[in-house]
Protein backbone atom coordinates (compact mmCIF):
# COMPACT_ATOMS: atom_id res chain seq x y z
CA UNK A 1 0.00 0.00 0.00
CA UNK A 2 1.40 3.38 -0.99
CA UNK A 3 0.57 6.38 1.15
CA UNK A 4 0.19 9.87 -0.23
CA UNK A 5 1.87 12.09 2.29
CA UNK A 6 4.93 14.24 2.57
CA UNK A 7 6.40 12.68 5.72
CA UNK A 8 9.65 10.76 5.22
CA UNK A 9 9.76 7.56 7.30
CA UNK A 10 10.75 3.93 6.90
CA UNK A 11 7.50 1.99 6.36
CA UNK A 12 9.25 -1.29 7.21
CA UNK A 13 9.46 -0.15 10.85
CA UNK A 14 5.68 0.21 11.19
CA UNK A 15 3.64 -2.79 12.32
CA UNK A 16 0.85 -3.67 9.91
CA UNK A 17 -1.81 -3.09 12.54
CA UNK A 18 -0.52 0.31 13.64
CA UNK A 19 -2.41 2.47 11.15
CA UNK A 20 -5.33 4.78 11.88
CA UNK A 21 -8.21 5.17 9.44
CA UNK A 22 -8.56 8.80 8.40
CA UNK A 23 -11.33 10.48 6.41
CA UNK A 24 -11.65 13.93 4.86
CA UNK A 25 -14.76 15.76 6.03
CA UNK A 26 -14.85 17.83 2.81
CA UNK A 27 -14.42 15.31 0.00
CA UNK A 28 -14.79 11.92 1.73
CA UNK A 29 -11.27 10.74 0.77
CA UNK A 30 -10.07 7.96 3.08
CA UNK A 31 -6.51 6.88 3.83
CA UNK A 32 -4.51 5.14 6.52
CA UNK A 33 -2.02 7.07 8.61
CA UNK A 34 0.74 5.53 10.74
CA UNK A 35 -0.37 5.68 14.35
CA UNK A 36 2.94 7.18 15.49
CA UNK A 37 2.37 10.28 13.33
CA UNK A 38 -1.14 10.73 14.68
CA UNK A 39 0.09 10.12 18.25
CA UNK A 40 2.92 12.63 18.01
CA UNK A 41 0.52 15.34 16.81
CA UNK A 42 -2.01 14.46 19.53
CA UNK A 43 0.73 14.64 22.18
CA UNK A 44 1.93 17.99 20.85
CA UNK A 45 -1.59 19.43 20.94
CA UNK A 46 -2.02 18.28 24.55
CA UNK A 47 1.35 19.81 25.47
CA UNK A 48 0.23 23.22 24.21
CA UNK A 49 -3.15 22.94 25.94
CA UNK A 50 -5.29 22.12 22.90
CA UNK A 51 -7.64 19.21 23.62
CA UNK A 52 -9.15 19.05 20.12
CA UNK A 53 -8.43 15.93 18.06
CA UNK A 54 -5.62 16.31 15.52
CA UNK A 55 -6.44 16.92 11.88
CA UNK A 56 -4.22 16.83 8.85
CA UNK A 57 -4.07 18.02 5.27
CA UNK A 58 -6.10 15.90 2.85
CA UNK A 59 -3.82 14.54 0.14
CA UNK A 60 -6.70 14.79 -2.32
CA UNK A 61 -7.26 18.56 -2.26
CA UNK A 62 -4.67 19.87 0.24
CA UNK A 63 -7.07 21.32 2.80
CA UNK A 64 -6.81 20.81 6.57
CA UNK A 65 -9.80 18.49 6.77
CA UNK A 66 -8.48 14.96 7.34
CA UNK A 67 -9.74 13.58 10.67
CA UNK A 68 -9.65 10.25 12.42
CA UNK A 69 -12.55 8.28 11.00
CA UNK A 70 -14.08 7.32 14.37
CA UNK A 71 -14.14 10.94 15.61
CA UNK A 72 -16.24 12.44 12.80
From TrEMBL:
<protein>
    <submittedName>
        <fullName>Uncharacterized protein</fullName>
    </submittedName>
</protein>
